[in-house]
Amino acid sequence: MLGATDFTRGRITPQIMRLALPIMGTAFIQMAYNMADFYWIGHLSGIAAAAVGAMGLYTWLAFSLGMLTKVGAEITISQSIGARTFQRATHYAKHALLLALLFGLGFGVFLFTLERPLVSFFSFSSPDAVRYAGEYLSVVSFGCPFAFLNATLFGLYNGRGKSNLAFLANGSGLIINLLLDPLLIEGYWIFPRLEVIGAGWATDIAQAIVTVLFIILNIPRRAPFHGLFRGFRFAWSFARRIIRLGIPVTLLNGLFAFISLIVARLVARWGDMGVAVQSVGAQIEAISWMTAGGFSTALSSFVGQNWGAHNLARIKKGYRITLIYMLTLGVVTTLLFMVWGSEIMGFFIPEMEARRLGGAYLFIIGISQIFMILEITNSGVFNGISRTLYPAVVGTTFNLLRIPLALWWGAICLEGIWWGITVSSILKGVVLTVVLLFIYRKRLL
User: Fold this and answer.
1) Cα separations in angstroms, 433 against 66, 372, 374, 398
2) Distance, CA of 209 to CA of 286 (rounded, Å)
3) Is 102 helix (H, G, I), strand (E, B) or coil?
4) Which of 30, 56, 112, 378 has the most C-beta neighbours closer than 10 Å?
5) Cα separation, 139 vs 195, whole angstroms
């Protein structure tokens, strides 16, 4: 396997930054896909934004399942490289991509065939919201295979320490999506006005082009994954380990998405605008959690290699450096959300009711930003040492708490549901930090 980055020696801060920044940039690219959609759709109407936002929770489920092969590939490849078993890293890459394709096809069929019951789950009060939701979900189901493959390809490059190439491919996809959104949603130039259907097709086309770009990047002989499937023979031992390592993270993200579906259903009782605000607000919040996720993924690869090389002192130092950057991020996003929440929401949905509710949502969510970032950063350490179960258990426990809190406080007011989300985020950050400190003091790390 050519060109693997060695994280077991050299200056730690530049290494983490070089890996984290492209990962973070790619995460922002994914966020920008959604932000672009919501900008144009939100200016159609709040009802359209509510419909697309609700259906976005089903694509979040797809992303969660895609994490199975992405995380499995990152861990197995980084650890194989750290142990200098490069041939095993190649085998893991082959199996991860095959599994991603199969899962992507299966989930796409699931969304397409069950479109009506999936839409009716939200009990929208507006017939237009029902129509918009069905149209959007039917279209985005065709992009699932590409989305699953792209996530796993990104994981392959992260495990190799070559996140910059993945950033270039995904960045090209974003540019295409930004160009297609106004053309297909509003019907500019020679294109018909497709509204929410146009948003779905813009995303599908962009994802497909990213997959093609990944293939083109690996045509040269010295490319990171040139001739990857030459002489491929399936082996359950490789597939099993990828799935076993990815399952805790996948279950955590999948359960999180499912809980968000339940919470969004409770929000819908207070009107469709509440769903629109929460959907757009979640994308705005992605500024912080995707940034933290980029550093967490970089930390996971860094820790994975040093864990394979039995270099524990280097792991601890890398964690401390990353934590300083992440806590700074938490303070900044908290101030932004709590002070300028209404103005930020108004950029996406200009209606006054959206601005009022959006300001309340971002103020409440802003309180938990530091704790949410702590949880994500600590998860990177646990993933790197193959203990993915710890963040999964903590996350699952307190994510489930959101449902009774939403039922209890949401019966009083809409904002009560959002306070339940914030309280659970605070508890996750505190508990996972305590668990990591316990492992550290017991010298298990």
Assistant:
1) 26, 11, 7, 14
2) 24
3) helix
4) 378
5) 12
E strand or H helix that includes residue 441: helix 414-441
262: DSSP letter = H
Percent of the chain, pLDDT > 70?
93
Q: CA-CA distance, 265 to 375, in Å (whole number)?
A: 26
Phi, psi of 84 (to 5 degrees): 65, 30
**How far is Cα of residue 111 from the mean position of the Cα atoms in its chain?**
19
**pTM for this prediction:** 0.72
240 phi and psi angles, rounded to 5 deg = -60, -45
Q: What share of the chain is helix, strand, coil (3-state, %, to 5)?
A: 80, 0, 20
Token code pair at residue 16: 């983490």
Q: In 3D, which of 119, 107, 53 has the Cα closest to residue 348?
A: 53
3-state secondary structure of 114: coil
C-alpha span between 85 and 383 (Å, rounded):
20
For residue 386, pLDDT beyond 90: no
Mean predicted confidence (pLDDT) in 227-246: 80
Q: From CA 340, how far away is CA 342, in angstroms rounded?
A: 6
The tens digit of pLDDT for each residue in 314-366 reads: 888 888 888 888 889 889 999 999 999 999 998 888 888 889 999 999 999 99
The residue type found at 219 is I
When comparing pLDDT for 63 and 165, which is higher? 63
Query: In whole angstroms, what is the distance from residue 240 CA to residue 199 CA?
Result: 37
- What lies within 8 Å, CB to CB, of 358 at 6+ separation is 277, 280, 281, 341, 342, 344, 345, 346, 349
Nearest to 91 by CA among 36, 4, 156, 42: 156
Q: 412 exposed, middle or buried (CB, 10 Å; 0-12, 13-18, 19+)?
A: exposed
The first and second tokens of residue 267, run together, are 């929000």
> What distance, in Å, lies between the first and last C-alpha atoms of the chain?
29
Q: 338 by DSSP, 3-state: which?
A: helix
Task: Please check whether residue 375 is in contact with residue 391, taking contact to mean a CB–CB distance below 8 angstroms.
Answer: yes
pLDDT tens sequence across 210-224: 998 888 877 777 766
The half-sphere exposure of 240 on its side-chain side, counting CA atoms within 13 A, is: 3
Cα 58 off chain centre by: 13
DSSP helix/strand/coil, 8: coil
Q: How far apart are CA 214 and CA 320, in angstroms?
A: 34
| CA pair distance 422, 246, nearest whole angstrom | 27
Q: Is 386 left (phi over 0), alpha (psi -120 to 50) or beta?
A: left
Q: Which of 25, 20, 31, 18 is nearest to 284 (CA)?
A: 31
